[in-house]
Amino acid sequence: MPSNSLGGKPVPIELIEESLYEVRRKIYPRSISGLFARWRVIFVFATQLLFYGLPWLSWNDRQAVLFDLVQRKFYIFGLVLWPQDVIYLTLLLILSALALFLFTAVAGRLFCGYACPQTVYTEIFMWIERKVEGDRFARIRLDGEEWPWDFHKWRLKITKHFIWLFIAFWTGFTFIGYFTPIETLGSSLLHLSLGPWQTFWLGFYSFATWGNAGFMREQVCKYMCPYARFQSVMVDKDTFLVTYDKVRGEPRGSRSKSADHGSMGLGDCVDCSICVQVCPTGIDIREGLQYMCIGCGACIDACDQVMEKIDYPNGLIRYTTERAIEDQESNQSAIRHILRPRVLVYTAFIIILTSAFMISLLTRNPLRVDIMRDRGALAREVEGVRIENIYRIQIMNASEHPMKVQVKATGLNDLKILNSQGTEITEINVGPASNQLLPIKVSTTIGQNDSGNYPIHFDVLAQELVGDKVVMRTREEKSTFIIPR
Amino acid sequence: MSDFLSAGWSTYIALVTIVGIFWCIWLLFSQLKVKVKLNPDGEVADTGHVWDGDLRELNNPLPRWWMWMFLISCIFSLAYLVLYPGLGSFPGILGYSSDGALMNSMTTANDELKPVYAKYVKMDIEQVAADPKAREMGQRLFLNSCAQCHGSDAGGSKGFPNLTDHDWLYGGSPENIKTTITNGRGGVMPPFPQLDSRQIVDVANYVRSLSGLPVDEFKRTRGEEVFKSNCVACHGADAKGNIALGAPNLTDKTWLYGGSEAMIIETVTKGRMAMMPAQDKVISPEKIQLLTAYVWGLSSNNLSAQKK
């Protein structure tokens, strides 16, 4: 039961009506330069070079990285993954999650601040916005009510959105290029002959990029991103976080550069509020760690610049741990707490899983076999001397080279395999990245065994022809042979 | 289950859905504002709700667009329920149904595939059977539609004819095979209650002798008489069968239900009913063309292989 009292004591309060829904106040982050800003530029370039560039690489006359959903084959350089390889995707996702946990335990939301597409595209869009409309105050003035919708304003807004939409469109185009060959996609785009679904997804991803990076921005992090919400359980007292040194900074206040602020009873914070102005999520880091903080470090760069100007030591806002602030420790000694159980456990898991991932990928067998026993007929007698069971054998060649396949059956005496024409199967040719389904008859001589179900094995031996070399691949599949009464 | 088939349930479900949506909208607007207390410094600290003595509910307002999205969802759902099925048994004014969508997509797919089949439809069965691409397609169709009874290798099993031999109950010409697939066949061997058990054993011995199987000579001679007065109408005086009736040739060592004396006795005593279902409603004529060629090719290949 809610009540208007705390601890049973009635509290004198003044009640006002307030809306439960607030109109978003647009954030105008001020541009900033410095160590962390440089790192972010490097990450923006690295991730986008990878994202925009990868679909254009080719490998053996095909696109190097292509996720062909229609053919259900994923091409990643020399690797062709089939739906049966979904375990690799699972492992990759688990590894990504573990890496996220590890980075968060060590230094907070590194992913959010530097590599998350939301941050990266927001950063790109804000850079364009800055180039077109100017920095924070120019933008606030331009959007202000005093500024009429004159030619100048229209020109700036249209230019900005034009460039934004171009980048958004290119992003959508690149994204679809991972799923349909990007070169044919490009030419059909130029000829305006895209399919309906290609058009839809192109529009969808362009719109999403434009909307998320241009308008939604920090709201995606604040209201939509689940990771932002559960990060706090992965952060502990020894996690390096963007932290305002309260002990050193408070009480804050403005002063002249020459003043001895110690004797004025002031801390090192000059209350210039630049750390708030540069924040892309619009928070005040001096209020402590908040869920909206994406760990971008913009406030660190901003504060260090101010500290330098007034000849104070750097690092009033810095990457440090909660324990270091409490115990007045230096970062050097705080770093000694880095190897704590959770960090070690995450690291161990990552090492084990990565090795398992690499080993299984390197020793992956591109030959796959499925044996399906005919259900309609149990068994039949052939010419009074043999008992025959019918199977379908599906041989899948997941490599990019042709295979010559031989099949043997073991488990009962004198097992013979014939094809459906009744002739002996010598060699089955399976083309690169394709599969073959063929019915086979397996028979044994009558009277050797009592009636019943017998487990048999199909030994499949394939020669993978890699250029002039021959690589041997084997598979063993189990099935049942029925001898009727 | 039948309880839920009465029209009352449909109305009930529709009512619950509609009332639910409007209740959501009402809830949204009734909760737009909250009475909160002001701190001495003029800032709003919390909603004033306190649980368990010290658990305070802070006021962290949602963005306004979130509220609009909620409202749009409500309107969307109402529009959806008018257009599409979902409101009890009301089918929606667009008349959409999932089986209708399936039929549409199947019609579209068949139309798209028409050109693939077009060239085979114009060809003779013999020519189609010689085309490796057509055989590949034929095999896929066979594995999909025929292999359940006739086996993946078309070798058949008890009661389901082997399609790879040269014994055809209804004839092995391309036209006959096509008719069999399109219209189906019903093969009836009537039971013979008028024969006593001795006569049946005798006739079974005679029938076995036609395929050169070991028999009791005395019974065989007696059985010949029984055969002549009972079986020749369908199987013919020479016992070579009749493809017009689907009466099997009894002289070729091929047995649909088994050639042991016991099996033949069972066949004569109880009769047999065999049924090949008609495929014309299930498989398009173009596909039947390919299937016919595949099935015809199965035994023709055998024929050429034997001649070698």
Question: Would you spell out the secondary-structure blueprint of this structure?
Answer:
The complex is a heterodimer of chains A (485) and B (308).
Chain A: E1 5-6, E2 9-10, E3 14-19, E4 21-22, H1 35-53, E5 58-59, E6 62-63, E7 65-68, E8 73-76, E9 79-81, H2 86-107, H3 110-115, H4 117-133, H5 136-143, H6 151-177, H7 182-190, H8 196-216, H9 218-224, H10 226-230, E10 241-244, H11 246-249, H12 274-278, H13 298-309, E11 317-320, H14 322-326, H15 331-334, H16 341-362, E12 367-373, E13 380-382, E14 386-397, E15 403-410, E16 416-419, E17 428-430, E18 434-445, E19 452-466, E20 469-483
Antiparallel strand pairs in A: 1-2, 5-6, 7-8, 8-9, 10-11, 12-14, 13-14, 14-18, 15-17, 15-19, 16-18, 19-20
Helix pairs in contact in A: 1-4, 2-16, 4-6, 4-8, 6-7, 6-8
Chain B: H1 7-30, E1 33-38, E2 46-51, E3 55-58, E4 62-63, H2 64-83, H3 98-122, H4 125-130, H5 132-145, H6 147-150, H7 174-183, E5 185-189, H8 197-210, H9 217-230, H10 232-235, H11 261-270, E6 272-276, H12 285-307
Antiparallel strand pairs in B: 2-3, 5-6
What's the overall geometry of chain A? elongated
What name is given to the CATH topology of the largest domain in chain B? Cytochrome Bc1 Complex, Chain D, domain 2
- Write down the overall geometry of chain B: elongated
How far apart are the first and last residues' alpha carbons of chain A, in Å? 75 Å
Strand residue percentage of chain A: 15-25%
Helix coverage percent of chain A: 25-40%
Beta-strand residue fraction of chain B: 5-15%
Number of helices of chain B: 12
| Residue windows where pLDDT falls under 50 for at least 5 positions of chain B | none
Largest sheet of chain A: 5 strands, antiparallel
